[in-house]
Write a structure and sequence with these properties.
Elements: H1 2-30, H2 46-53, H3 68-96, H4 102-139
Helix pairs in contact: 1-3, 3-4
Length: 140
Amino acid sequence: MYTVTLGKKIAATLQALVLALGFGVASLAMSGPVLAATCDTTTLNIENGAACGAPTNAKENLFASGGIFSTIANTLIFLVGAVAVIFLIIGGLRYVVSQGDAKNIEAAKNTILYAIVGIVVAVISFALVQFVINALNKSQ
């Protein structure tokens, strides 16, 4: 009974950590130095105003290899894979400390199985995201 409660607490803590890291990475990826282009402030017209307001360090393509979408997607896929590996380790530890109890062994095997499924999903989603990004870059 104690290991189930401990497992739930660990799972809740890891979920909160992944969410916090995801939001932190997303906010860092979206915020960056955006400097105004060199503009002529002596002539006041629409073209100069637009040139003064245009960012210089912003990514030209949202889906480029260093774009925001690619950065966020790769970071989240990495986090999912890391959490799956952590749960694989937790499942192995639960299996070792199950002391022959059939219920605990079954729960540990399920944890290992779901962790492996999570790793496979992370690898497939990484390949899918890379395929979509490459397809979008070729179409432009």
